[in-house]
Amino acid sequence: MITIRPFETNDQDYRLAVNITNAVWPEYPDTVDEWKESDEKRSKLLKRGRFFAEIDGKPVGFASYGQSLWINHPGKLFVGVEVLPEFRRRGVGAALWERLCNEIQQFDPLRLLAHTREDYEDGIHFASKLGFEERMRDWESRLDPASLDLDEWSRYHHQVDEQGIEIRTVAELESDPDRDRKLYELEWLIDRDVPSPEPPSKVPFEEFQKVWERTNLLPDAWFVAVDNGEYVGMTNLWTSQANAKLLYVGITGVTRSHRKRGIAMALKVRSVEFALQKGFSEIRTWNETNNQAMLGINNRLGFVRQPAHIEYVKVMREERPEDAHLKIQDSPQEEEKQEIEAN
Q1: Closest CA relative to residue 109, chosen from 333, 331, 340, 337
Q2: Which of 30, 165, 170, 185 is spaced 20 to 30 A from 101 at the CA atom?
Q3: What pLDDT is stored for residue 266 in this prediction?
């Protein structure tokens, strides 16, 4: 018999949830500490729900829904359903989905966002069965920093130097009293041009500043292109607590006014230099399949393409005129609810 129970914020449930997620996504392991930190830094404005499916008291599946300030609408929710491989096709996913759908009705859902990987056949079948439609794909690419002959790419450093553009780390820019505000505005300029299944929203500045509290942040691997005091491009790398040799690319981009000048390539080369100097063995990044400019840079550097990640959207209702103005901040600011008790 399948029973559904809420996730509770204790060590045992964190371990259970992380173990299920890691079993479903073994190439992208997380740790309990990373989940706890993410929860701690999450805006209290955002509503969410998480719960387990159990068979004979054993957790065999995990589901979640949640709002995001990056897509700021109370009815646009990220959702996920994970079931241990050996317990699939036994109604576990359907039971989790039914519970999830019942809970999200309180938000008058507009669209649901989910993802899987193109070689995860069970995930593709489940998404299609539930009425999700593919919105876009992101190629994953991986690089062994040791495979790159950095001397061959040093010309890009000289090229930006000749334009009077400096590549500096955020640690080196700490003395700039406007650093955080400049980074915030730069990231927003870049985000607006990054393909996304939904139009992005500008997060509040105070939410952006929480980045400095993140354990996986590497201030010495966050590189900024500076043109006469103006921040015009950046790339950053993040660590993984589950894999000490792995780095993830957070965001790479250059403002429109400074593109096609070799800046993005110079930033990427600096990030690879950092990875090599610090002994990391792999860098992973994702790019939308039509983002030819960034894919071209990664291909030239020797990133090896992996299976694509598919972004899905499920339309729950027709859009209304007021949806254009709805924001999460406008929703009632009641205490964040825990999941409803299972029957």
Answers
A1: 331
A2: 30
A3: 97
